[in-house]
Write a structure and sequence with these properties.
By secondary structure, the chain is α+β, with helices and mostly antiparallel strands. The chain contains eight helices and 14 strands. The protein has two domains: 118 residues, 2-Layer Sandwich (GTP Cyclohydrolase I, domain 2); 157 residues, Alpha-Beta Plaits. Strands 5, 6, 7, 8, 9 and 14 form a six-stranded antiparallel beta sheet that branches. Strands 1-2-3-4 form a four-stranded antiparallel beta sheet. α3 packs antiparallel against α4.
Length: 287
């Protein structure tokens, strides 16, 4: 994924923001700086302006807000600008806004005051976790805790724990599986690195593909992003074939669309074996 940062400096707009009645009545000059990070893979690949972020449009949206209805706080104004740009430009991943107020009514000599804010786009994300060696439930609990404390990642829901038969290589112990969903500003490869770091910290050792492991964490999806390179494919290429993924995922995100189809639909169409995935006893304590 290629990212570009657009810097816009000194966008000057007349507005009526402030706490004092004179500020909203008389108005004053505000100066805006923008730092906008955007994905540019398609724009670069096609050299097509239609897929790029228009600098003029960024300015127009900002001018519209600064020149519009007054806010008491320039902090609120900065936040609204950041939110609007993220909402109106889908390829934008991060917005930094600095609002200068050169004529702030402060009874001391100064060149002005300013506030800065940064907002990042949060995308829905899903993980599958499994373990079939050692203290399986403990490994899952620890992995979920570390995922939930990672900066830039918010875990919103965790499924119950499920017993499942091995998949891909049958002659090994059964697994305990779970899924977690949330929102993140992290890139796909940053999430992959996080999964691998947690696996390493919990003692996962290199072994046979699809063989026994203390912990396995798969990144299932990241918004509607598609990706295929030598280390990562999104959505997960085998997600739709695995009951041990779809059953816990359907419990917490039945309507999440993956590859254009809801999870509940993928699960309903999956051929199942009786007892292939079953909720563990005492599950309410795991959530």
């Amino acid at each position: 994924m290629k990212l570009m940062t657009i810097e816009i400096r000194g966008l000057t707009v007349f507005g009526r923001h402030g706490v004092l009645p004179e500020e909203t009545r008389l108005g004053q000059k505000f100066v805006i700086d923008l730092d906008v990070e955007a994905e540019i893979d398609v724009a670069v690949a096609t050299d097509d302006y239609a897929h790029a972020v228009c600098y003029a449009a960024l300015c127009e949206k900002t001018v519209e807000l600064v020149g519009g209805a007054p806010f008491k706080l320039i902090e609120t104004l900065a936040d609204r600008i950041a939110a609007r740009l993220l909402a109106d430009f889908p390829s934008v991943t991060r917005v930094g806004v600095k609002v200068h107020k050169p004529a702030a009514p402060i009874p001391h000599p100064l060149s002005g005051v300013s506030v800065s804010i940064e907002r990042k786009r949060l995308l829905p994300v899903g993980f599958s976790l499994g373990s079939n060696l050692g203290a399986r439930e403990s490994f899952l609990h620890t992995a979920l805790t570390w995922l939930g404390t990672q900066e830039g990642l918010e875990i919103d829901a965790i499924s119950r724990f499920y017993d499942s038969a091995p998949w891909g290589k049958a002659d090994q112990p059964g697994f305990v599986n779970a899924c977690a969903i949330g929102r993140t500003s992290l890139s796909p490869h940053a999430l992959l690195r996080l999964c691998k770091e947690i696996e390493n910290r919990l003692g996962r050792l290199p072994g046979v593909h699809w063989g026994p492991r203390a912990i396995d964490i798969d990144l299932l999806y990241l918004g509607d992003r598609t990706l295929r390179d030598h280390v990562l494919t999104l959505p997960h290429p085998f997600l739709h074939e695995r009951a041990f993924v779809l059953v816990p995922l359907a419990e917490i995100a039945p309507h999440q669309r993956i590859g254009g189809r809801p999870v509940c639909e993928l699960l309903n169409e999956l051929p199942r074996e009786p007892g292939d995935v079953t909720a563990r006893a005492g599950n309410e304590e795991t959530r």
